[in-house]
């Protein structure tokens, strides 16, 4: 049994390690998810989020870490399974319980042979040898500390009898059938009626009334739907009250069903007509004299001026501004371009970060122009500094040996 104890201790150690690495995996996923939530809440910028994520991942991806943890946990489970198999075979192949019954018989025979005969008794008293006891069956005792399972009472047979269908239940089923039949149509009509009612504006938020223009009535006539020109349909009579399905099959319910069949649905369709079509229609129907007077006041000159005004507005909106560098930028592009290209070729890492920073800064200058201006400014400042300090040192009577 020593081997079984060693194997059991190894299984316990592996289970502890399994729990530990499962905890590491959960903490890793929790850290990554919390960092992403903080980034979504704008607690970190994009660059800060990338730096913190690199610290957590350590030059690996999230999928690689998850795959690593899963593979290691799976290997631990396989080792535990192998140790469990060894424990099972060790216990299964243990035959020491058979030797216990064999050792009891010789001991009893030796005890019977040692019995001595008393001389003053004529009859010899000899104890018979003790028969070997039958093998005891292995009794599996319950493990202490484990809760006992609940006692399941015997299930009695339940006889299900089909209840008799009464007249009231039959009528209720018929009523339910008709309710389901008309409920969907009733809901669709109610939804269409609610959608057709325009929403009232809040008090104090209504737009101010603008003075009517000369062409206001004409534009209103153009925007009106088809029913405004051809005549709107007659309004349906309002029902005195709603009919509910739970009221039963009464006379009012039958009247409501008959009224629904006779109803005619009118759908408002928005139709726009051209100005010429509206004008011909109004002339044909003999429109009001006020509208005719307003239409006659519209002259060709007014229409031409309005068209020019609209055209100028559209041209201003569509006009695109071409990028033009400043004088200093143009001078830098002409003089320092070759030197800037040489710097870009020899120091790509430095200028890569500089270009990325310029894009994020959203400066209205091209990146190459900005680099040229930077190089030209440094060279100009160096030359100007030498000239300026040379004059200052000459006035102070200082030699270059003293300075340097």
In words, what does this structure look like?
It is a single chain. The protein is 64% helix and 0% strand. Among the domains are: 2-98; 214-227 and 271-320, no CATH class; 327-403, no CATH class. Helix 1 packs antiparallel against helix 2 (46-57). The protein contains 16 helices and no strands. By secondary structure, the protein is mostly helical. Mean pLDDT is 69; it is low at 120-124, 137-164 and 225-249. It is flat and about 120 Å long.
Helix/strand/pairing category: mainly alpha
* CA-CA gap between termini: 89 Å
Which residues sit in consecutive blocks of at least 5 with pLDDT less than 50?
120-124, 137-164, 225-249
Radius of gyration from CA coordinates: 51 Å
Share in helix: 55-70%
In this structure, how is the largest beta sheet organized? none
Give the overall shape.
flat
Mean pLDDT: 69
Q: Summarize the helix and strand pattern as letters.
A: HHHHHHHHHHHHHHHH
What tags apply to this protein structure?
16 helices
Question: What order do the helices and strands come in, and which of them pair?
Answer:
Blueprint: H1 2-40, H2 46-57, H3 62-92, H4 96-113, H5 167-196, H6 216-223, H7 226-230, H8 251-262, H9 275-284, H10 289-297, H11 300-318, H12 327-335, H13 337-346, H14 348-361, H15 367-395, H16 400-403
Helix pairs in contact: 1-2, 1-3, 12-15
């Amino acid at each position: 049994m020593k081997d079984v104890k060693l194997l059991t201790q190894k299984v316990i150690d592996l289970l502890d390690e399994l729990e530990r690495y499962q905890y590491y995996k959960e903490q890793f996923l929790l850290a990554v998810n919390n960092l992403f939530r903080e980034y979504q809440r704008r607690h970190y910028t994009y660059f800060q989020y990338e730096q913190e994520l690199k610290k957590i991942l350590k030059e690996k991806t999230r999928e690689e870490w998850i795959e690593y943890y899963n593979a290691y946990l799976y290997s631990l489970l396989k080792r535990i399974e192998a140790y469990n198999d060894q424990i099972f075979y060790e216990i299964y192949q243990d035959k020491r319980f058979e030797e216990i019954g064999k050792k009891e018989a010789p001991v009893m025979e030796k005890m019977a042979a040692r019995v001595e005969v008393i001389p003053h008794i004529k009859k010899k008293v000899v104890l018979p040898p003790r028969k070997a006891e039958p093998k005891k069956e292995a009794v599996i005792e319950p493990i202490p500390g484990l809760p006992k399972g609940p006692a399941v009472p015997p299930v009695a047979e339940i006889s299900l009898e089909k209840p008799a269908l009464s007249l009231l239940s039959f009528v209720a089923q018929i009523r339910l059938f008709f309710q389901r039949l008309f409920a969907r149509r009733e809901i669709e009509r109610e939804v269409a009626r609610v959608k057709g009612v325009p929403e009232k504006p809040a008090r104090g938020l209504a737009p101010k009334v603008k003075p009517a223009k000369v062409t206001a009535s004409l534009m209103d006539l153009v925007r009106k739907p088809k029913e405004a020109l051809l005549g709107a349909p007659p309004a349906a009579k309002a029902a005195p009250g709603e009919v509910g399905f739970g009221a039963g099959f009464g006379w009012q319910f039958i009247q409501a069903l008959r009224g629904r069949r006779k109803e005619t649905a009118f759908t408002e369709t928005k139709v726009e007509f051209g100005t010429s079509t509206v004008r011909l229609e109004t002339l044909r129907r003999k429109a009001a004299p006020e509208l005719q007077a307003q239409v006659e006041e519209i002259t060709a000159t007014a229409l031409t001026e309005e068209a020019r005004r609209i055209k100028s507005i559209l041209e201003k909106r569509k006009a695109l501004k071409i990028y033009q560098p400043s004088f200093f930028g143009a001078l830098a592009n002409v003089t320092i371009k070759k030197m800037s290209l040489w710097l870009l070729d020899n120091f790509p890492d430095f200028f890569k970060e500089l270009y990325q920073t310029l894009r994020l800064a959203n400066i209205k200058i091209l990146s190459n122009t900005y680099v040229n201006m930077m190089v030209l400014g440094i060279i100009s400042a160096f030359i100007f500094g030498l000239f300026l300090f040379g004059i200052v040192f000459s006035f102070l009577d200082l030699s270059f040996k003293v300075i340097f």
